[in-house]
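Fig. S4 source data, part A: sequence.
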Amino acid sequence: MGKVTGFLEIDRQVHKYQPASDRIRHFKEFTLPMSDKEVEKQAARCMDCGIPFCHGPTGCPVHNQIPDWNDLVYNGDWDAAIRNLHSTNNFPEWTGRICPAPCEEACTLNLEDIPVAIKTVEQAIADKAYETGYIRPHPAQSKTGRRVAIIGSGPAGMAAAQQLGRAGHDVHVYERETKPGGLMRFGIPDFKMEKRYIDARVKQMEGEGVTFFCGVNVGVDKPVTELLAEYDAVLYCGGSETPRAAGIPGDDLDGVHDAMPYLVQQNKRVGGEDIQSTAWPEKPILAGGMHVVVVGGGDTASDCVGTAFRQGAVRVTQLDIRPQPPEKENKLAVWPYWATKMRTSSSQAEGAEREFQVATLEFIGEEGQLTGVKCCEVDDGRKPIAGTEFVIRADLAFIAIGFAGPISGGVTKELDGQMKLVTDSRRSLNVAANDRDYRTSVDRLWAAGDVRRGQSLVVWAIREGRQAARAIDEALMGSTVLPA
């Protein structure tokens, strides 16, 4: 695929960023697009691998046919590349922006630390689809007469809705928030992905016959039992939204917050919405002029870092209980799987101070207001090392250590006793359903995405939504033409 000797002749190039000093002054995307010719050169680096691990289960959950569309881009056939990419991925403009690209980790050229710039090419193809008018409604030729309700409009719910709508079913999506998108819209900052890409897909899907009902909290405003009575099938894609309990003394001080209310508020500000209309009730949280500490080392923590800088934080410190990873991994030991190695996000590169192998012992305050975070170093077993305690000044602190499952006050509460839940390896309580037919223990109720598998990547949510749609279509019709 691509140019046979391309990987020998062409250096790896990816999208450049605006300088940090410029991009922290706004909440817009800051990647600088490459020209078509530059992207075609990067696609030419794709080798004719005997086994392309990039689109197998180790590399791409939605099984994007990466070598195929790299070859098409290299040969300038962008239209065919767009069709190929959309055959496996409903929303490549989302994944091209926010997926961590396990496909590049699995690339054969990553053995030499120069993988094909797959994510850059994917985003370029998706953006080209908008330029050429491909992102338009593609409605079903005929209707089946079957009705399907989907609870939640995150990536799993959106992918399932589009697949089922195109199969000819009458699909109704119920969303708790004011607009569709779930945490794609309200959790992921605009500087990582502007929400016009969600709006465009909602418009496309409405043109395909999908109906969105926003401001409806199923299990609270509308009983699940009503949906089960009204529809032939119901798919639960509520996400994983319960913050994992940190159990840190002092977390009730003013100035200490879970990460998600902070991110949701800022996304609503950028979108021109009332921040108090959220299901994450909090008073306004702003980091301007403050010393900020973020507890956690993942993507959500990084999003808090970037948001704080854009709000004018004086200093941002990120605490990670894990040891500082090596700069390079042992390729022969881990390839083609995701490697543990030193990675610096664009937000961290904007000036964050990072502390590794550090535990958060206590939030310290005066008169109920946070003033500092007491920390200590830990050993390899994450046990505190005596005599290593220190205090970091903090006016604001965000806890970003993950999520423990779906919110407890909605669907799961209403169906308590009927819906079987299961604890995963991270001690998250998820809705029990397998990854073959996605059926729950409740008749005619399916589940997919983070509510089933626990917090994960957007690309996994899209895959589960697509697979659940196939399972539902097959259950309703006796057979299905939707892809596996």
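Fig. S4 source data, part B ends here. The chain has a mean pLDDT of 95.
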